[in-house]
Amino acid sequence: MPITAQHVRDTVAAYLADHPEEKDALSAVGEVVDQAGDSVASRKEFRGHVTAGAALVRPDGRVLTIEHRALRKWLLPGGHVEDSDTTLREAALRELAEETGISSDQVEPASDAPLHIDVHSIPANNRKGEPEHLHFDFRFLFRTTADAVELQEEEVTNYSWQFADMLTAEPLRSRVMAAANRP
């Protein structure tokens, strides 16, 4: 069963239990879920839709980043959810495996709740017929001892294991740094 509006609500609630100060920043997620229902998981929902990402940390404190081909930016592995995904965390694991070749049996989830939820605008893409819209990016923390990466070259041009302090977006940077310092 695909990701449901209720699953998104429950995941946001679990996140806000740890980060109540972000309630206002995440109000757009609740508004779109209320309006769109289960279609909030569809990339064709242009009021906004959920995406999932993976902050993958090695024991040496380095986090995996990928260079996104279309956006030409260094990002965490992640992307759109698919109908086969039943949870946002599962979607993050699938995206991690697709983009990097690091499978779910090579990683350990840190929590069922996201490490960070980011709301950001995606510019219009006339080639794809997509207007400007919001992404609600649910980012989950995973740990690994894996080293080898096999890139999905259609979407990813490069990868790097960087120290968490090289991440620029807050509060993601601080949270990954704190997690990287925990055993």
Sum up the structure in keywords.
alpha+beta; five-stranded mixed sheet; 28% strand
Strand content is 25-35%
Gyration radius (Cα, Å) is: 16 Å
Average pLDDT works out at: 92
Helix content: 25-40%
From the spread of the alpha carbons, the general shape counts as globular
Summed up, the helix count is: 4
Q: What is the total tally of β strands?
A: 8
Low-confidence stretches: none
Distance between the termini: 35 Å
Question: For the report, how would you describe the main beta sheet?
Answer: 5 strands, mixed
The topology string of helices and strands comes to: HHEEEEHEEEEH
Classify the secondary structure makeup into a structural class. alpha+beta
Description:
This protein is an alpha+beta fold. 25% of the residues lie in helices and 28% in strands. It contains four helices and eight strands. Strands 1, 4, 5, 6 and 7 form a five-stranded mixed β-sheet that branches. Strands 3-2-8 form a three-stranded antiparallel β-sheet. Strand 2 and strand 3 form a beta hairpin. Helix 1 runs antiparallel to helix 2. It is globular, with a radius of gyration of 16 Å. The protein starts with a helix and ends with a helix.
Short description:
This protein is an alpha+beta fold. The protein is 25% helix and 28% strand.
Please render the helix and strand layout as text.
Layout (H helix, E strand, L loop, with lengths): L4 H14 L8 H10 L12 E9 L4 E7 L4 E3 L2 E3 L7 H13 L6 E3 L6 E7 L10 E12 L11 E8 L8 H9 L3
Parallel strand pairs: 1-7
Antiparallel strand pairs: 1-4, 2-3, 2-8, 5-7, 6-7
Helix pairs in contact: 1-2
